[in-house]
Amino acid sequence: MDEKQISKRNMKELLEDLNDLDWSVRAKAVFDLKNYDAPIATDALIDKLNDDNENVWLSAANVLKNRKDPRIVDSLIKTLSDKRDEVRWHSVYFLGEIGDNRAINPIIKTLKDKCVDVRINAAKALGKIGDKKAIDALTKTLEDDDPTVRKEVITALNLISPAKPVNALIKSLNDDDKRVRSLAAIVLGKTRSVKAFDDLIDTLDDEDHIVRISAIYALDKIGGEQVVKPLVKALKDPYWEVRSDAASALGKIGRSEAVAPLLETLKDENAFVRKSAVKALEKFNIFKK
Hints:
This protein is mainly α. It has helices spanning about 5-15, 25-30, 40-45, 55-65, 70-80, 85-100, 105-110, 115-130, 135-140, 145-160, 165-170, 180-190, 195-205, 210-220, 230-235, 240-255, 260-265, 270-280.
């Protein structure tokens, strides 16, 4: 029997195993069928998206996400209303991986799902697909009760269009969760929106030093004379990382009024801060060669 006949026989056996009463046999058959791209194999795998067992369903969805067949997207959209949390969040995840715009509106609806994992993956999926149609729904989801959802929403908005929801991002600088505040500051920096300037200055007094570092990053991106004074103040921050980043930012901005404070920073107790100050001052050409 030649290799082609063996392959056909094996596929036939696998297709039969898809109907086995033992879910593990069905799941194994699904996994092995990934090596077959014949239409009959794809048809059988799509049918397994209706399997009652989560493991079989998950195996089928994982195999099918890399195949080009509109029925796959249709089937995954249907499972967004499945009673099982794991099936719903995996469906959203796979739809994001596939990236078909037909899934945008169904995924947007899942931003209100009762399961936090569904909402998290919905935000991720919308960011991956990148359709601006999702911006308004994502912006509203910045009010979600779960901080991880809010963080993923900001990440998604950054991928799609960070400039449009500036007001909502500014509000997120006061979020209860430090990760959300930090990410909001970073994304606002990427927008270079002067509208966020005053709020970012206030964020330099945040209780968390990582958030303050993010605010420095944002002010560095905005640039201009207006950011020099708050960055000079940050040279006195209790955390050396904040002082170091402030020194580096002042060097990039290149305003002469930063020279005297940077010279004073050469006396900083931390070597990394002093090194950052030296590099910043080198840009002003004040050291003799």
